[in-house]
Amino acid sequence: MANKMYSVYGVGNPLIDINTTIEEKKLERLGIHKGAMHLIDLEKRKALLDIISSMSVQYSCGGSCPNTILTLAALGIETTLAGKVGNDEFGKIYKKQVKEHHVKDEIVICDEPTGSSIIFITEDSERTMNTFLGANRFYNKDDVNDESIINSNFFHFTGYMYDTPSQKEAIHIALNIAKTNNTTITFDIADVFAVGRNREGFLALIEDYADVVFANSEEARIIFNHYDPYECCKSMGKLCTTAVVKNGKLGSFISHNQKLYNIPVQGPSTPIDTTGAGDIYAAGFLYGLCNHLDIEQSGYIASFLAGEIIQQRGAQFTKEKALLVKDQLDKKFNLL
Questions:
Q1: Average per-residue pLDDT for the chain
Q2: Are the CB atoms for 268 and 311 separated by under 8 Å?
Q3: Is 143 helix (H, G, I), strand (E, B) or coil?
Q4: pTM reported for the whole predicted model
Q5: Secondary structure class of 35 (helix, strand, coil)
Q6: pLDDT at 4
């Protein structure tokens, strides 16, 4: 029987995902490049919302850190999600779904529109994302809840929190609170473009604050100016206790106290949808740590969950699927 599981506090960018199907020809007529992620402004979002107003849509909670936190909650981990949404219908939908996922809600409300991602799915199941950051960009130091960070075992955040000066200031205040109070800090770089904008800042952050860092091979390559993910993992492992470099179909490398592990990939060789796979990998790794498993076992769970999520559409499991994978993991690692 395992000891009581740990709790995870996450701060990130809540994005309401608006999913709809569309013919490829219509997507072409809209001048939208299929399969890409486009950052859009408020005017473009309004135009796209007008276009899909007569179409069937589904709403779900999105965003990199939220994907990780909601998955952990679905697996039975006590979680809290912080961020910022607007005082609008999308914000209400987001907060309602967070509550339904049994996640403690510390998402603050402001007068800016809620961030969103309008996702067009074509006949070949390709997903084309049109992302409006909105209220996310205005998260600031006054939104940080000291007590919640102090009372959590893990503080999780992503590189997207460096997008604006106010977000960056807030995250550094939170990091200092976490470090002072021995809350384990886990950092998912999450975006190759964020690395390009903040390479030196991320290097300092990893060395000064992070206990666990997640990067994919491309993010690691830019940070350490090296094409070999194994060598990148070694380099990052010298800056923090636990470094993870994901290498797609070739699995992942983990450095823990500078001991290297090679974690094999799991799941199909041809994925259905890789959206959010890295977020779910992080959730799996944290699930292992919350259950007091060792680094190699936590890496196995991370790879397993990533392999499961790429076999479906979207970045979150249904409640039924989450219970199924939790049962499989709990039996395998005697967590019942």
A1: 93
A2: yes
A3: helix
A4: 0.93
A5: coil
A6: 57
